[in-house]
Amino acid sequence: MGGGELAGLPGSDGSAALRRHPNWIRARMPSGENYQDLKRLLRGLNLNTVCEEAHCPNVGECWDQRTATIMILGDTCTRACGFCNIKTGKPTWFDDDEPRRVAEALSGLGLDHVVVTSVARDDLPDGGAHIFAETIRQLRQRIPGMGVEVLIPDFNGEAVPLREVMAAGPDILNHNLETVKRLQKPVRRRARWDRSLGVLERAKTYAAELGHEAYTKSSLMVGLGETRDEVTEALRALREVECDILTVGQYLRPSLKHLPVERYYHPDEFAEMKAEALALGFRHVESGPLVRSSYHARDQVPGAELRALRRRQATIDADGRVVPLAG
After folding, report:
1. Structural domain tally of the chain?
2. For labelling, which of 61, 114, 115, 267 has a CA lying 20 to 30 Å from the CA of 3?
3. Among candidates 116, 122, 117, 118, which has minimal Cα distance to 79?
4. Banded model confidence at residue 119, pLDDT cuts 50, 70, 90
């Protein structure tokens, strides 16, 4: 593909056609023994993964590193965000036994780290928080050596569901701000800037009250029409609520029905944003054209290298499950 933003004919809805990506937007083709093994196992277990549902460009790299993002609470979202390719509508699927089944399925995969996310479930009284919490508990019980991160919706800003999730003790609580303050409404139609910042702030408070060591994390997309000053405002707002980990990536339009790409950022600009974020005090920053919320997620957990080593040294029990070494 060429190196510019080459526009074609307009779509049937009158919107601009999808642009060709610049030459630095190139994902690595999925390959490797770990990737093929994990793909086979996940398909056999009939688990939903955001890696595939959202066509993540990093699926090959993450799966090759034994990291996956599992999507619970079905595959139909109650919200219709302007950037997201997940199916929207009225969910009909719910299963209280899902946490046990997910943990049982994952126990044989030899993962170093798992990210558990979900569609938004505004139809449920607690937004599905109890399913998140029980999934964390089941994973801790069955796979004690694995890092656990949860990428949660905002639960409509309710305190009780968030506290229930934090009480289960995730290593990382991730909630995405997604974009700058001015663009929240067109990008995240039923979310709010202050509400999302409040989720991250209260998560820190609850973790401290409960005696858990948990990092908070958020993600920004660029290329939706924001200014650099607005990006800086978002970075500072996240640090004001003591957000620890940040990912910044280029927005790529999934289809003509979604918001158009207003601008492609050069890799040098992503490097500048990373330097700015680290100077503001973030513990860990991933910033690049193809970076997504779960990119290099394993490396962001305290003690990640030791956990990964112990997973690699694990044994396999008679049922084919991975059993970490004691201690």
Report:
1. 1
2. 61
3. 122
4. confident
